[in-house]
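Hi C.,

You asked whether I'd gotten around to modeling the 61-residue construct. I have! Everything is below, sequence then structure, no commentary in between.
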Amino acid sequence: MAKYSPEASEKVEEVMHEMKAGKLKTGSGKKVTSRKQAVAIGLAEAREAGAKAPAPSKGKR
């Protein structure tokens, strides 16, 4: 199991709140409705900010 930093967890929490409020958008501007997609966006933003989070999986991109 991967270890996430507290900063990464906070970022994912923020993104989930945005999704539930209907304010989270994809890169193309569409509304995010999938929990998995919201978590992936949160982890990507955390990685960009320098938080400890594992690299994205090679499976589905």
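If it helps when you're writing up: Helices lie at 6-21, 35-48.

Thanks,
B.
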